[in-house]
Amino acid sequence: SGLVQARDWEDGKLRWEYRFSGRTADPICSEDAIIFKNPHSGLTCLNVNNGKVRWEMPRFVKGGWNIIDGKLYIYLIPGSLACIDVASGRRDYLPFLKSDRLTAAPQRFGDIFCFPAEGGRLLFTRQKEVLNELRVDGKWAETIANDKCVYAFNDKELQLYAIEANEAKVLWKAKLEID
Predict the structure, then answer these.
(1) CA-to-CA distance for 18 and 35, rounded, in angstroms?
(2) Close Cβ partners of 52 (under 8 Å, ≥ 6 residues apart)
(3) d(CA 4, CA 51)
(4) CA-CA-CA-CA torsion for 169, 136, 150, 143, nearest 10 degrees?
(5) What phi-psi label fits residue 51: left (phi over 0), alpha (psi between -120 and 50 degrees) or beta?
(6) Which of 56, 54, 45, 115 is closest to 80 using CA atoms?
(7) φ, ψ for residue 96 (rounded to 5)?
(8) Is 97 helix (H, G, I), strand (E, B) or coil?
(9) Would you give per-residue pLDDT tens digits along the chain (179 residues)?
(10) What is the pTM of this model?
(11) 8: which DSSP letter?
(12) For the chain, which terminus, N or C, has the lower number of CB atoms within 10 Å?
């Protein structure tokens, strides 16, 4: 059976636990919630203070996810993106990206979101519109962002790119030597 526990950092004492049938995978936390993939290919969100179920989502979860400003961005089968309010479980779907077969978790750079998509595309969006696109041979395996730029790894070229998000301009790229 599955188990999620909260323990005190200082003494390890059990604060609460949540039990269920099956196994859990890929937990992600915000300030006041823990969300995990449940054994039924959906999501369960628990309140971190008491372990009570805040909401559940019985949809089929495909892959990568990220919490940005209290919103959970997650890919659903068959490739659409949902934006879920962590506190309430309210879902919005981003139809402008629905046909774009996303491949990894989104990242945020200021008010611009960066979404890796099939066909070697990196989509830069603001609110509900695609601003720019950067295309490479291969696919974007991972992306991360900081206050300066978005960093993306291209799995075919084995190159790390630093990209300025406002213009989708490559600042530099470096070949990685992987054994």
Answers:
(1) 12
(2) 46
(3) 8
(4) 170
(5) left
(6) 115
(7) -70, -15
(8) helix
(9) 678 888 888 889 999 999 887 776 677 888 889 888 777 667 889 999 999 999 988 766 666 677 888 888 776 665 566 778 899 988 876 655 655 667 777 777 777 888 788 788 888 887 667 888 888 888 787 787 777 788 888 878 888 888 988 888 899 988 877 66
(10) 0.63
(11) -
(12) C
* Alpha-carbon radius of gyration of the chain: 18
> Within the chain, what is the greatest distance between any pair of CA atoms?
51
Which uninterrupted H or E stretch holds 46?
strand 43-47
What are the CA-CA distances from residue 81 to residues 1, 53, 54, 64, 144 (Å)? 30, 23, 21, 10, 18
Residue type for position 148: K
- Closest Cα to residue 174, out of 163, 165, 161? 161
3-state helix, strand, coil in the chain (%, to 5): 5, 60, 40
